[in-house]
Specification:
20% of the residues lie in helices and 43% in strands. It contains two helices and four strands. Strands 2-3-1-4 form a four-stranded antiparallel β-sheet, covered by helices on one side. The chain starts with a strand and ends in a 15-residue tail after the last strand.
Length: 97
């Protein structure tokens, strides 16, 4: 089984539930090996978080369902890795900003 091995999501969520609860809910799904959630922006009522999920044959619909049930909205899918192994991104001259 290969499928999706890593997915990185940009999510807008309310302050509650906390990111610890979101991480635990996501890791309860089958095939998820780990979840990393980083808060990068906070305002009065919401938080913008980057969620990185790794595993084997990840089910995006199940992931989205948990996020939405917890009050989150997926702004974008920022990275997807699929196949037999995870290929890390390589910097090239075009990546200079």
């Amino acid at each position: 089984m290969n499928g999706i091995r890593r997915i990185v999501l940009d999510i807008l969520k309310p302050h509650e539930p906390k990111i610890t609860e979101m991480a635990l809910q996501l890791t309860s799904l089958p095939n998820i090996d780990g979840v990393n959630i980083t808060v990068y922006e906070i305002d009065k009522e919401t938080e913008n978080v980057k969620v990185t999920i790794e595993g084997n044959n990840l089910d995006f619909d199940e992931i989205q369902e948990i996020i939405e049930r917890l009050g989150g909205t997926i702004h974008s899918i920022d990275e997807v890795v699929a196949g037999k192994k995870i290929i890390e991104e390589v910097k090239t001259p075009q990546d200079r900003h």
